[in-house]
Design a protein that fits this description.
With about 300 residues, the protein is α+β, with helices and mostly antiparallel strands. The strands form 4 sheets. It has a 7-stranded mixed β-sheet with strand order 2-1-8-9-12-13-14, with helices on both faces. A 3-stranded antiparallel β-sheet has the order 3-6-7, with no helix packed on it. Helix 6 packs across helix 9. The longest helix is centred in the C-terminal third of the chain and has 28 residues. The protein is globular, with a radius of gyration of 23 Å. The two termini are about 30 Å apart. The C terminus is likely disordered.
């Protein structure tokens, strides 16, 4: 999980790793940053080195380079060129302030990875992206929730990235899942660019379009969760999807109705996606277990 020194604040459900501090509903991003012990700044500091004989300090050979430092502990995240501009932790959480004040979102998690080398803020979207999936009465209900994520790194390991996501980010694993998935509308910024109000607005514009896409995806998932599919329909569904993606040749494919290709039944019976237990036997379950794993 790579959470160090309990640098995580969250509301609601306790994360799987049991770390972090639960906060009260409605707490601001800046207050959550303080609770997570991430309310420090990042500095660019000049560098010097000792001469060949071990005496004196030489700075001229290091002109053009800066140490990227955590101000409260003097931890050096990296040495970068002077073109590197850190995004401050407070700027990450402040990005969501307007959304929260307008009632469109609530802060969900604020955390740091590897001693603050990577910092993120996650806000839960209010309405429009929440979908309860229809399941068997014998199985607990499942759901999809919509969030907005903004993350950055001080060690250069990731760009500054903003996007809506269905993943509740509470650690490195979930952060990797959230930023690793393909998405048409994602805001990214290299560290050679300075964060500014104009850049923040650019990120909001990009993420606003992506939120609409997330709503459509969740709506489709809700519809698929209500569709029951028999074995014949399962094979036909997977075949049509794979053919549409160019992964199977029409007419010549080995996937025939009633005769699934090897491993298809095992894939459908497995729980590849997180909500597969709840949606097993539905259109959504087939899509998640069969198609995604096959691809």
């Amino acid at each position: 999980h790579m959470i160090e020194n309990n640098e995580l604040a969250y509301r609601g459900e306790t994360p799987w790793h049991g770390l972090g501090v639960r906060v009260e509903e409605g707490m601001s991003g800046l207050d959550m940053l303080r609770v997570a012990k991430l309310d420090w700044t990042v500095q660019r500091r000049a560098l010097a080195m000792r001469g060949a004989d071990g005496s004196g300090l030489l700075s001229e050979p290091l002109i053009g380079y800066k140490a990227i430092v955590r101000a409260d502990t003097d931890q050096v995240f990296q040495v970068a060129t002077e073109r590197y501009h850190p995004v401050q932790n407070a700027q990450i959480v402040d990005f969501f302030r307007a959304y929260c004040e307008a009632g469109h979102a609530e802060m969900e998690t604020v955390g740091g990875i590897r001693g603050g080398a990577v910092v993120w803020a996650l806000a839960k979207l209010n309405g429009g992206t929440d979908v309860d999936l229809v399941t068997s009465p014998a199985i607990a209900s499942d759901y999809l929730r919509g969030y907005m994520l903004l993350a950055t790194s001080h060690d250069g390991s990731i760009k500054t990235i903003g996007r809506p996501t269905s993943v509740r980010v509470v650690c490195w694993n979930t952060l990797s899942a959230a930023i690793g998935a393909k998405a048409e509308h994602t805001f990214t910024m290299k560290h050679t660019r300075k964060w500014s109000p104009a850049v923040a607005q650019e990120a909001r514009n990009v993420m606003g379009m992506a939120i609409e896409q997330l709503q459509q995806t969740h709506e489709a998932a809700g519809i698929l969760s209500k569709v029951r599919i028999d074995h014949k329909g399962q094979v036909q569904f997977v075949r049509e999807v794979l053919e549409a993606e160019g992964l199977l040749e029409p007419e010549t494919s080995s996937v025939q109705l009633g005769t699934p290709a090897p491993n298809f039944n095992a894939l459908w019976a497995s729980k590849v996606v997180s909500h597969a237990v709840a949606v097993a036997g539905t259109g959504l379950g087939r899509l998640g277990n069969g198609v995604l794993e096959a691809i």
